[in-house]
UniProtKB/TrEMBL annotation:
The chain crosses the membrane at residues 6-23, 35-56, 68-87, 94-119, 125-148, 160-183, 224-242, 278-302, 314-337, 343-366, 378-402. The keyword S-adenosyl-L-methionine does not apply. Its main location: membrane. The gene is gltS. This is Sodium/glutamate symporter. It is a multi-pass membrane protein. The lineage of its organism: Bacteria, Pseudomonadati, Pseudomonadota, Gammaproteobacteria, Lysobacterales. It comes from Rhodanobacter soli.
Length: 406
């Protein structure tokens, strides 16, 4: 058996990550459904190991010691994006949209628990197939999987991956037809003028820091990236103390919560006082790279054979959850978000990230606007909620259910 240490494991993950991008570029179906490249690359390894297991061979062992730090780095970067100033731009609709998404996350868990109980499975199985992997996606599912394993859910990482991947496909397939039906049946039209009172607010002008970064020297850009990297590490370090303190109080929380909160605090202090000079571009690059490597390493080490016997519960759960999300979009989301063209496009994005990921939501919304015209309010509200705000509220919802049913 080939034994890979943590560095070699991440390096191997990087190779399969690049392979995932190459495969997606050459397979249109994968691009159409916005299947993440890390998932493609990681699944290649997981499927290969599954085949080897049938032959009673274990060719390689991965040391995933760096998996958790990479995961925490990604969610810390998410925290740095949680700016209260963003809520001032179409704030009422953002708060309302977030409230609807959070409410549906609770419903997803209740539905999951009910179906799990009907199949004779533990209630927490319904939670991990609820908002953990549907509203949360594969990253949140894999981040919470160790907690579910400790609570007695067998094969939690594999269940999380399977449900998240199926949700991504459903979100991509359902979102656009739902919005198209609303647009065509109700003869909705894109706003002709964005200056009319009550219409979508103007997009904020590009931040001066972003314009300055374009003209910055290579040295300045390097320093901005280094500063961002150090701030993320600082947030992770302080966040570890906070998470440890919350754990000492008896709360079951994912390890990234403390770092995520510290990142949000640093961002909002910088917005008001300018103490840190954050480079959000650098933070996003570091966060996205950490997410990609975390996902591919986590998936390479998945035990897909743990899914034996769970196919039917997973399929029934996904079918019912999809119906619930569609019903939620038709009412109350459609009515509360304005019953107009932007609301229809927002509904498609809502399906995308409540069953899959924000990437699904953006892909579905883009396909609609290419056909029917721009929807500026939808592209302001949905990404802000889907990209990071729902991660905060969903973590609270998941933690409540874990502590209530453990």
């Amino acid at each position: 058996m080939l034994m890979l240490d943590p560095v070699q494991t991440v390096a191997c993950g990087g190779l399969f990550l690049i392979a995932g991008y190459a495969i997606r570029a050459r397979v249109p179906l994968l691009s159409r459904f916005s299947i993440p490249a890390p998932v493609i690359g990681g699944l290649l390894v997981a499927l290969a190991l599954l085949a080897c297991r049938q032959w009673k061979v274990t060719p390689v062992h991965f040391d995933t010691a760096f998996q958790q730090p990479l995961m925490i780095a990604f969610f810390t970067a998410i925290g740095f994006n949680a700016s209260t100033s963003l809520l001032k731009v179409s704030g009422r609709q953002i708060v309302l949209f977030l409230g609807l998404a959070t409410g549906l996350a609770v419903v997803q868990n209740l539905v999951g628990i009910g179906l799990a109980t009907a199949f004779g499975l533990p209630p927490l199985f319904g939670v991990i197939t609820g908002s953990v992997t549907l509203a949360g996606g594969p990253a949140t599912g894999l981040a919470f999987a160790p907690l579910f394993t400790q609570a007695g859910v067998q094969g939690a990482p594999s269940v999380a991956l399977a449900n998240a991947m199926a949700g991504i496909i459903c979100g991509s397939v359902i979102g656009a037809p739902l919005a198209t039906m609303l647009i065509e049946r109700l003869k909705l039209r894109t706003p002709q003028s964005l200056d009319v009172a009550g219409s979508a607010p103007a997009m904020p002008p590009p931040a001066p820091a972003a314009a300055a970064a374009n003209a910055a020297s290579a040295e300045e850009q390097t320093y901005a990236g280094l500063r961002s990297f150090v701030l993320i590490l600082l947030a992770m370090g302080i966040g570890a103390w906070i998470s440890g303190g919350l754990g000492a109080l008896g709360l079951t929380l994912p390890s990234y919560i403390g770092a995520m909160l510290v990142g949000a605090l640093i961002r909002n202090v910088d917005d008001h006082l300018g103490w840190f000079g954050l480079s959000l571009r650098s933070i996003d690059i570091i966060g996205n790279a950490s997410l990609s490597l975390f996902l591919v390493v986590a998936l390479m080490n998945l035990h897909l054979w743990d899914l034996t016997g769970l196919a039917m519960p997973l399929l029934v759960n996904l079918g019912v959850q999809s119906i619930v999300v569609v019903a939620f979009c038709c009412w109350p989301l459609w009515w509360l978000m304005g019953r107009d063209y932007d609301a229809a496009v927002m509904a498609s994005g809502f399906v995308g990230f409540m069953l899959g990921t924000t990437a699904n939501a953006m892909a579905v919304m883009s396909s609609l606007t290419e056909r029917f015209g721009p929807a500026p309010r939808a592209f302001l509200v949905a990404p802000i909620v889907g990209a990071f705000l729902i991660d905060f509220t969903n973590a609270i919802v998941i933690t409540f259910f874990i502590n209530g049913w453990k």
